[in-house]
Amino acid sequence: MNEFVETILALEWHKPKPAYDVVIIGGGGHGLATAYYLATRHGITNVAVLEANYIGSGNSGRNTTIIRANYGIPESIRFYQHSLELYGTLEDETGCWIMHSTKGLLWLAHTESAMRAERARCLLNQACGAETVMVTPEEARSICPQLDLSGGGRYPVLGASYHVGAATARHDRVVWAYAQGAMRKGVDVLQHTPVTGLLRDGERVVGVETPNGPISAGLVLSAVGGNVSTVAAMADVRLPIRTHPLQAFVTNAYALGFGPIISDTELFCYVSQTARGQMLMGAEFDPQPSYSLGSSYNFLQSCSAKVTHLLPFLRDLRILRQWTGICDISTDFSPIMGETGVPGFLVTTGWGTWGFKAIPAGGEQMAELIATGRTPAMLEPFRLDRFARELPMADQGSTGTR
Amino acid sequence: MLALETIPGVRAAADAAAIDGMVVAEGAVVLRFAPDEVFIMFPKPGRELNEGFAQAIIARETGFVGCWLTLEELAARVVAHIDWALPVERPALAQGLVAGVPAKLWLESGRALLLCAAPYAHELTERLR
Amino acid sequence: MQRADRHPAPALAGPGRIVVDGAPVPYQAGDSVAMALIRAGAHPGRGGTLCLAGDCGNCVAEVDGIAWIRTCQADCRPGLAVERHPARGGPPLHPVAQPDVTRPPVARRIPVRRVSVDLVVIGAGESGTAAAANARLRGRTVLLLDAREDAEVVAIYGGPTVIVRSSTGMTHVHAREVIVATGAAELHPVCPGNGLRGLLTGRAAELLHAAGIDLGVAVAVGEPPRDVPCTVVAGRLVRIEGTERVSAVVTATGEGLAAAEVRTPCETLILGLGRAPRDLLARMSTGEPVAVIGPAAESFPLPPAPTAGIVCPCAGIGVDDLEGVWQRGFQELELVKRASLAGTGTCQGSVCLPHVRAWVASKSGTVPEPFTARPASRQVTLAEAAADVHLDVFKRTPLHDEHLALGGRLDRFGGWWRPWTYGDHVAEYWAVREGVSLGDVSTLGKLIVSGPDVVELLERIYPNRVGNLGPGRSRYALLLNERGHVIDDGMICRETETRFVLTFTSGGAANAEMWLRDWIETWGLKVQVMDRTMSLAAINVTGPLAGQLLGRAGLADPPRYLAHAHAEVAGVPCHVMRLSFTGEASFELHHPVDRSVELWRTLLDLGRDLGIRPHGLRNLFGLRLEKGHVIVGMDTELDSTPHRLGMDWAVRMDKPEFLGRSALARTALLPDSRRLIGLTMTSPVPTEGSPIWSDGEIVGHVTSSFDSPLLGRAVMLGWLKRTPFPEAVEIDGRRATVTRPPFYDPEGLRARA
B39 forms bridges with which residues in the sheet? Predict the structure, then answer.
């Protein structure tokens, strides 16, 4: 036994019922968190979460587990900061161990234009309640002694924004914590139950088709990641979303000795050390849209080259495993949450490469929308109709990808 | 280190059919960058394209730098830095990344010309050092 | 790869000795590190069964400064430094001294070979060798790879491309077809005591015995090894006894009440428990032209479901851990793996997968499919992965060295190295405003477009009028996408009826070229395009004395404002464009890159008594801000329409058609919700990006700010995003005045002078 075997929480599986008040498609973090908050905050427990595979098998289990709020527009900063704070209390609230660890994140800048963007980020973060400060190269080095300030002679560090509250947590355990909490309140989580169609009554969505038969629902929420365009099309909803693969890799486990999260404004790579000691690395999403979960050596090559420029000690570490998730990228690089214009059908999507950090706030706010029928103020900017209203939430520079 | 020097020539953008029918002075080397674009190196300076080259953009071009390599130099200095297969026929123009730099290779039977745009010259020489 | 920097060869080392944890250990020719350690009576790892075939993680150690090396796969050489991993926690993260930046990075020194063949066969065992020979007979080019011959296959990627690691570098093999003939791996025991030392698979025992290593009192359970002196004990394995090292094995025969246990003392226990396909590569390569042959493709019977002992030695997971997570509701293979972490260690489940599958089958009644296999099969370091990888190219203008010689500090902007400042940025500013200055604008995008349909093309591409522009005249234009959002800007210069020169921003040039070519093809227009961005350098001669300087350089009759002409300047053929970004009279001299240094130096010489000095980007950004000119990408956002930028004047909605027109017509009906405005306030100047406040709320942010030496106050551009747009705003806790740019010379008299 090692200390990372799950010994605290327990999952209780239930038999499906023919009808629920709310059916949530997608048993990842967002779907399960929504069910959890529906049950715990609003007393709505006649809820089913349908998962095509096993819970957390999609992007919830494929991300690089970074929690941060250092965004570039007030609406996003407030939303992600709220999420970051919910993460900070999630262990206390659920009694689960999600391996939450506040680490701080350095976002390195190598050019004057990057410095300009990071200075702006710090000012707006502070104004909106997120703690982000500019640091000098020397300060960055004291936060991360392994940092090569010359950037391998090619990417000299001019400075960095330091997001003090950034954290990581074990992605699977976040999924399970929400699943357990929801299940205990009576939510049914149905694994291996893909949705093959939607039940309609006129325009209204009134349930889902599954290989095990139809399930009727007062309301259907798509919390699908990666295949949302397919699910939305079943409701005749077109989303401004493209799906791209995103890859990551880990090394073997090493003694703990790398405290912060390192990220880069130009190289779009990020590095942290997991609680188990593995060095976890990722980079920008693949430029070609695809639903493929296949890995590429090009990614391993370029990501390795990038991170070793900044952190030369990584060069002698051996790569254990490489994997891929698929990301729904909206045209403004911000999430899409809420009503779709089709009665009875809601979405929480567009989670791109930034969905993990948003699980608590996304779930909480979607639950409030479902329970009250009103879009909470925090979600208002992220409604789907913002595109028709020409009010996109453009913030690509904060996503750590391009 | 490779010494890249300006490779002067004439660059022409024209309808693909017009380029297909183009007549150039004897001894000129014609590099077909694209169906609608050629780069022509003339054996003697001052030579120009023939007339009747309809609707073309023709410009003296000094924006490419390059150097001629022996086959041994090509194998030793360049081939290790490309991850695509060289064409087998000769002569042939190949275009792609050389050590990550956008470049072109003009392959003759006994030698090869490595070309890149002038702003890339420094990085290309550094990377092939 | 020689890695002597961290572990200089110690004096202890000599021929025939490696250095393990600081102490010499002799070896014999042909020994792997693991064998040398076993020969010396030690276990290369912490305990557990050794396969000596590269399958398990029980013999890993740090070798030559690199941890997680399977020592059974590492050859000995004199002085080789081996550090065993600590019993708890991982091997240390070694700090690396600041690298020598004058040398290429270490990854550059790992050679990469690239090979193309018809067929790659992985595994030079019986079936692999036969398949390779067969293919060769049929005239195909074949590469036969085997880890035992220093060719470890890391993974098979799309293509298929096979990545091979060896001690002399990396090989990338492009193949038409791949045959995986990796054979089968021997099963490890899962029972109490299976973490002790002295446990060997049958093949490992054969290998050690053949190498002349004394195994002591050896007992074999299951299928006995060939030619290894040992006592063969019948029955099934129950448990292994001992403290650190095995002292006895307990086996049982019979079932139920008739079961009888037998305890057999031993010093070495040899286990012939069966095999499982060595199929990690085969499983990670589905969908490619990859065939699996031989034992790797066989379906061996699963071992009996384990009831106790370590099931996953890499992660230290016992059968009781599996039981624990199962009880907690993790009741399928993938969830068991994630909740227990079994199979997530360095061998990627090679050891535990058959046992975990058998165990899950015993609980659920169904044999689960193996869990997903992902690269890497054999591991590489990041340096090996990064070998011969080059990151983005940084472009240099022909004046790069001139800037350095003048003390310029270069910064990268839009993919180019550009001068940020030459040191005295205040003097640079006044040179532009009061004298004459040079700016290197070689990085501007420059396209020639020509053809019978060129006017139609440009009328459809640009939102302003193009057809009424006379030859020799130029006009500023925005570039919009179909949604009416500004994606770039630049000048349209008409040369003849059917020929134009277009300029774009430095960072936007490549996109702009693709944008034009795409639309030419979509609309089927007869227009030729030639990108001259990297062929022509450009120097901006700007300031009230610019005309005087150009006169000295032989340009007696410079073009009027917004005109352009081809002329020689100081003997260099130039396309001279009269415009103004700085607010002063400005002449952009576009000229062949190979003449740029000559032109730059001549102009500096000619202007010496005029106080000429070059200006960098830092000043350019401030100078243009005084004029209120936006920089696309700095002041604009993804959704910036001309209206939101206050640039309706650059759009002619009376044109019947242009890209973005229908979107602009639609959004014109929406309420105004975002607006780029001018702001002024007293010094000190707020930082770019500062929030703009009104009534205690954030209503927008500053996009650009400049402490104007001429105006003696801060001038800014910024977004207001709260409606109704507030008139009283605060920045940095101080009042700022919302105004309409330009802040300087609003009539544009100086630019036209």
Answer: B11, B31
ipTM over 0.90: yes
Contact C619, A374 (CB under 8 A): no
> Which CATH number characterizes residue A312's domain?
3.30.9.10
Q: Contact, A139 vs A260, CB < 8 A? A: no
Q: How far apart are CA C227 and CA C209, in angstroms?
A: 8
Type of residue numbered C291: A
- Residue pair A370/A221 in contact by the 8 Å Cβ criterion: yes
Q: How far is A281 from chain C (nearest CA, A)?
A: 11
**Domain span including residue A225:** 19-63+171-241+332-398
Collapsing DSSP states into helix, strand and coil, what is residue C446? strand
Contact C93, A313 (CB under 8 A): yes
What is chain B's length?
A: 129
Give me the pLDDT at residue B93, please: 98
Only one residue has tokens 């042909």, namely: C30
Q: Is the pLDDT of residue B53 over 70?
A: no
* End-to-end Cα spacing for chain A: 41
CA dist., res. C16 & res. C39, Å (int)? 13
Closest alpha carbon within chain A to C325? A6
Q: Within this chain, do residues B31 and B46 fall inside the same structural domain, yes or no?
A: yes
Determine which of B6, B39, B62 to mutate to test the interface with C (most C C-beta atoms within 10 Å): B62
- Angstrom CA distances, C707 to C39, C166, C428, C701, C744, stand at 76, 59, 14, 17, 13
Higher local confidence (pLDDT), C221 or A289: C221
A306 contact C CB<8A:
yes
CA distance A219 to A228: 17
Closest residue in B to C117 (Cα–Cα): B85
Tell me the nearest-neighbour CA distance from C327 into chain A, angstroms: 8
- Phi, psi dihedral angles at C259 (to 5 degrees): -65, 140
**Residue C295 pLDDT class (50, 70, 90 cuts):** very high
Chains in touch with A (3+ beta-carbon pairs under 8 Å) read: C
pLDDT at A268 over 70: yes
Band of pLDDT at residue B55, cut at 50, 70 and 90: low
User: A47-50 and A188-190 as β-strands: parallel, antiparallel, unpaired?
Assistant: parallel
Please answer yes or no on whether C96 and A312 come within 8 Å at the CB atom: yes
Domains along chain C with CATH numbers:
17-84 (3.10.20.30), 189-272 (no CATH), 305-366 (1.10.10.1100), 392-443+535-636 (3.30.1360.120), 445-532+640-670 (3.30.70.1400), 671-753 (2.40.30.110)
For the stretch C33-57, pLDDT in tens is: 999 999 999 999 999 999 999 999 9
